[in-house]
Amino acid sequence: QNLLAEKVEQLMEWSSRRSVIRMNGDKFRRFVKAPPRNYSVIVMFTALQPQRQCSVCRQANEEYQVLANSWRYSSAFSNKLFFTIVDYDEGADVFQQLNMNSAPTFMHFPPKGKPKRADTFDLQRIGFAAEQLAKWIADRTDVHVMFRPPNYSGTIALALLVSLVGGLLYLRRNNLEFIYNKTGWAMAAL
């Protein structure tokens, strides 16, 4: 029980610094594989070093970061789910231990027992969008991760444009002849 509390405390400390915890072989064996565990771990196995030339790994990592940040900053954040990453160059022994020969791969390690077939995310069939990963995590862990905060930049840009036009019309309210100027409209159209 004391060992479990230490593991959870350490993982929470790492999570407070970064939403995705980087792991090497030793950390993986201690925190992900070794019992006791009362938490789920989502692991992204990847090869991010430039010499590996894995562009898919970088794209998948960006989506994974979005998802992990959403979890870390959500009101539902708890010590029941952790997001980790194992890079091939830092944990080649882990890839060999799990008989992995491709990256990126996402796996769920449940609190008890060994991962089942469904605990490996089907990247080829589903893709690696944050929304798809969130759905898979919810299926495997019953933890619902919110993803991608709404993007209000379009709305803000439109409001700014309307206010600028409104302000211009207000300032020029006594002389609105420029509205009928064909040359002005031609320049604005370009």
From TrEMBL:
Highest taxon above the source species: Eukaryota
GO annotation terms (biological process): magnesium ion transport; protein N-linked glycosylation via asparagine
UniProt subcellular location: Endoplasmic reticulum membrane
InterPro entries: OligosaccharylTrfase_OST3/OST6, Thioredoxin-like_sf
Pfam families from the UniProt entry: OST3_OST6 (PF04756)
Gene Ontology cellular-component annotations: oligosaccharyltransferase complex
Family the entry assigns: Belongs to the OST3/OST6 family.
Name the record gives this protein: TUSC3 protein
Species, as recorded: Horornis vulcanius
Lineage of source species: Eukaryota, Metazoa, Chordata, Craniata, Vertebrata
